[in-house]
Amino acid sequence: MNIASDPMSDRDLVSRVANGDRAALRLLFTRHHARVYRFVARQTGSEAMADDVANEVFLELWRQAPKFEGRSEVSTWLLGIARFKALSSLRKRKEEWLDDDDAAAVPDDNDTPEVATMKTDKGAALRRFVDALAEEHRTVIDLAYYHGKSVTEIGEVLDIPVATVKTRMFYARKKLGEALKAAGYDRGWP
């Protein structure tokens, strides 16, 4: 099956998974595994835990596909499952934390070395500041900026009202801006 030309929507694939179609599950895994993995890695700070949890999410998809009601996008549903499983895993075990400085250092090949270094430094600082936020603020920032979720989708993933998402976003942005300013970083990129 050619994934690039496959016209099946995610919802159609979930319906097929509900009927026991393993090929549909593999296609959903191919489409969404990287996003789920990155989300869990940022939530837990552990690559090993992210790998385990991401795989558990797709096992849960296999089990829960018949119950999917289609009230949200499949990607939002999967991230909601991932968040729950990540929080459960964090409660169950402690592991060595991922070095965020290494994870955040991804230079742009088109930039000069100076600009790339400035971006790397500011990106690492921003990641540290995001990680230092309270869990409720860190999660909304992660879903909005690293996963491109809308305020409504974030509310669905976290099972909270949209107004609460907006309030958390406001305070998270304010705290990040204050932290960047205190560290001597100007607004804008780099």
Automatic annotation (TrEMBL):
<feature type="domain" description="RNA polymerase sigma factor 70 region 4 type 2">
    <location>
        <begin position="125"/>
        <end position="176"/>
    </location>
</feature>
<dbReference type="GO" id="GO:0003677">
    <property type="term" value="F:DNA binding"/>
</dbReference>
<dbReference type="Pfam" id="PF04542">
    <property type="entry name" value="Sigma70_r2"/>
</dbReference>
<dbReference type="Pfam" id="PF08281">
    <property type="entry name" value="Sigma70_r4_2"/>
</dbReference>
<comment type="similarity">
    <text>Belongs to the sigma-70 factor family. ECF subfamily.</text>
</comment>
<feature type="domain" description="RNA polymerase sigma-70 region 2">
    <location>
        <begin position="28"/>
        <end position="94"/>
    </location>
</feature>
<dbReference type="InterPro" id="IPR036388">
    <property type="entry name" value="WH-like_DNA-bd_sf"/>
</dbReference>
<dbReference type="InterPro" id="IPR013325">
    <property type="entry name" value="RNA_pol_sigma_r2"/>
</dbReference>
<keyword id="KW-0805">Transcription regulation</keyword>
<dbReference type="InterPro" id="IPR013249">
    <property type="entry name" value="RNA_pol_sigma70_r4_t2"/>
</dbReference>
<keyword id="KW-0804">Transcription</keyword>
<dbReference type="GO" id="GO:0016987">
    <property type="term" value="F:sigma factor activity"/>
</dbReference>
<dbReference type="GO" id="GO:0006352">
    <property type="term" value="P:DNA-templated transcription initiation"/>
</dbReference>
<dbReference type="InterPro" id="IPR007627">
    <property type="entry name" value="RNA_pol_sigma70_r2"/>
</dbReference>
<dbReference type="InterPro" id="IPR013324">
    <property type="entry name" value="RNA_pol_sigma_r3/r4-like"/>
</dbReference>
<protein>
    <submittedName>
        <fullName>RNA polymerase sigma-70 factor (ECF subfamily)</fullName>
    </submittedName>
</protein>
<dbReference type="InterPro" id="IPR039425">
    <property type="entry name" value="RNA_pol_sigma-70-like"/>
</dbReference>
<keyword id="KW-0731">Sigma factor</keyword>
<dbReference type="InterPro" id="IPR014284">
    <property type="entry name" value="RNA_pol_sigma-70_dom"/>
</dbReference>
